[in-house]
Each structure stands twice: as structure tokens, then as C-alpha cells.
Write a structure and sequence with these properties.
Helix content: under 10%
Largest sheet: 6 strands, mixed
Strand content: over 45%
Length: 114
């Protein structure tokens, strides 16, 4: 079964940076597209970025600020977040793309505030 564990969230000031990490098990990691998703309070969960052997795709709201990458031997996917804005505040999750619905983890909280 797919298992995902996110880490790296926290409180950061506007304009700051964070790097999220997600370790994955239960899939052939190097062959499975993976993504970072987020859910802000009162809003639906949305896809932020995804990565596959074909490349990367980003939501318009994070283009140029966020970078998704992965380390296949470590079975870890990362999300480097720069120039953070208050509207980036959310719980961030990783999952396969498309998502494996029984595999959602607890996520990691990112709060951007001064």
C-alpha cells in the first residue's frame, strides 16, 4: 500500500522560503508521477505541482516561486518554496498523480504571516 510522510512545514514571514519533503513507499517511485497538493482553510484541496519522467507542471499561482524535485534512490519528493505569500498558507500534502485516495497523509502545515 502507498504510504506518504510529509515534513518541513512551519511558520515563515512573507518573502521567506521553506523546503518540504515527502518520503514515499509502496510504489515504484521512479516510475510514478507524484505531486504536491495543498488545502487552505475553507477551500478545496488543489494541485500545486507535479513531477514525472516527462517533466514538471505547476499551478499558475506558484509558477516561478516553487520548484518540485525528487530523489529516486531516497524515494523522496521535495517542494522548494520561495517568495512565500500569505495566500500560500495551507496544509501541504504529497501524493501520487493522480492521487491515491486512500493514501493521503496528515500533511504539513505552512503558515506565511508576519
Amino acid at each position: 500500500q502507498v504510504q506518504l510522510v510529509e515534513s518541513g512545514g512551519g511558520l515563515v514571514q512573507p518573502g521567506g522560503s521553506l523546503r518540504l519533503s515527502c518520503t514515499v513507499s509502496g510504489i515504484i517511485f521512479s516510475m510514478t508521477p507524484t505531486g504536491w497538493y495543498r488545502q487552505a482553510a475553507g477551500k478545496q484541496r488543489e494541485l500545486v505541482a507535479r513531477i514525472s519522467n516527462g517533466g514538471t507542471i505547476y499551478a499558475d499561482s506558484v509558477k516561478g516561486r516553487f520548484t518540485i524535485s525528487r530523489d529516486n534512490p531516497k524515494k523522496t519528493v521535495y517542494l522548494q518554496m520561495n517568495s512565500l505569500k500569505p495566500e500560500d498558507t495551507a496544509v501541504y500534502y504529497c501524493n501520487t498523480y493522480p492521487p491515491t485516495h486512500l493514501a493521503w497523509g496528515q500533511g504539513t502545515q505552512v503558515t506565511v504571516a508576519s
